[in-house]
Amino acid sequence: MSGFPQNFLWGGATAANQFEGAFLEDGKGWSTADTARFIKENGISMTELLKPTTRADIEFAMNDKEGVYPKRHGIDFYHRYKEDIALFAEMGFKTFRLSISWPRIFPNGDELEPNEAGLAFYDAVFDECLKYNIEPLVTISHYEFPLGLAFKQNGWESRETIEAFERYARVLFNRYKDKVKYWLTFNEINIIGMTGYLSGGILADGEKNMLQAQYQAAHHQFIASALAVKACHEIIPDAQIGCMLARMEAYPETCNPLDVMESVNSDHYNLFYSDVQIRGYYPSYMNKFFRDHNITIKKDAADEQILREGTVDFMSFSYYMSSIASHKKEGDTTGGNLLGSKKNPYLEASDWGWQIDPVGLRVTLHKLYDRYQVPLFIVENGLGAKDVVESDGSIHDSYRIDYLRSHIEQMEQAIDEGVDLMGYTPWGCIDLVSASTSEMSKRYGFIYVDLDDEGKGTLDRSRKDSFYWYKKVIETNGADLS
């Protein structure tokens, strides 16, 4: 008998900027994702996400006629959403995680009136989901910050962006209050501490302390999230709204107390964001970090009360891999979700060097539930791999099935051990453009999309072996993982 509750939300996850396409169509404005160029050097796809981004960089991308910008076309979900949602329904999805593109609703980010064509598109998407009894799980902001606000006020570094976000969120709640009951405020909110431009629209021009700018932006996002939570509870009383964190589980390299302390510090750096959004106040351990890095957070008098009153209903997170915390910096390293790590000799790794650690997911579930005692939701997890299409069109992705099976087994054990887990939406349930490297060849989906890194292909959809496997998992509520 399966250990998953009967109301467990099985599904899949996507993001507007990685699969919608329809660049600037129907009134959509520019976003930070639209300037992400695909770069390949020596056969390796490179990322520019962690580099400071200037106005000149953005203007170059906006005027570039030769570069490849895959997130502008995605996989054309904008025009193929009915076909894709029908495939999700065939798998038996209970929920579908997607995001709304802020500049599709407010092209420059701060208009007083929304773009009706953008609103109508998501109406149609939600109606199609509900036709199949699929609950939409909607992320309000997922790496598609409006460039208009980046140019006008340096994005989230400006407190004025809070007002624009709250207006945007209230428009969504009022428009979709009868269609969407599960919401997330910011995707992987902690990424603002690593890259100011991607999720925060912060340009490096004139910034003497980028870390100061990023943490000030994080504060503004905390306030905006709290105001959105309060608005959601007022407008849609039967809805639930959560936070979303990129979870980075880091084991001590050895039992040396200095390595253990590094692991503690890693948790502080990672969980600071969820501490604020779930507990409603700044943790004291950040005082030294701010002091050491010459960071002073500017706050308004009402901010503490806003944070207390705007705590989220549940915690969602992404989990792909674990890493190593060590007080010694030398040693072999491997790839990771924006941040690399020392190699763990007990783990295998993906084609991209991400260390595969299903037990680490169970460790994370227990750590988070012990810390917060709120329901948890795994909204991203999966294996990026190079799929091969056979001569008959089939795709035998047993490696993906093995990865997902091993993680679901650990989820079931965590539930049996007392963790309150709401649901599971594996990342990239349909192949889409990579968030970090903008490549298409790094595939996560149950559904194959005929498109290459250069944007060439038919865009035809086809079912992988994992499609049929996941369908059986959902049908049996996790009881049959064979």
TrEMBL record:
GO cellular component, one term: cytosol
GO terms (BP aspect): carbohydrate catabolic process
Pfam families documented for this protein: Glyco_hydro_1
UniProt keyword annotations, A-Z: Glycosidase, Hydrolase
Transmembrane portions of the chain: none
Family matches, as PANTHER family: 6-PHOSPHO-BETA-GLUCOSIDASE ASCB-RELATED, GLYCOSYL HYDROLASE
Record-stated family: Belongs to the glycosyl hydrolase 1 family.
Name of the featured protein: 6-phospho-beta-glucosidase
Species this protein is from: Enterococcus caccae ATCC BAA-1240
Taxonomic classification: Bacteria, Bacillati, Bacillota, Bacilli, Lactobacillales
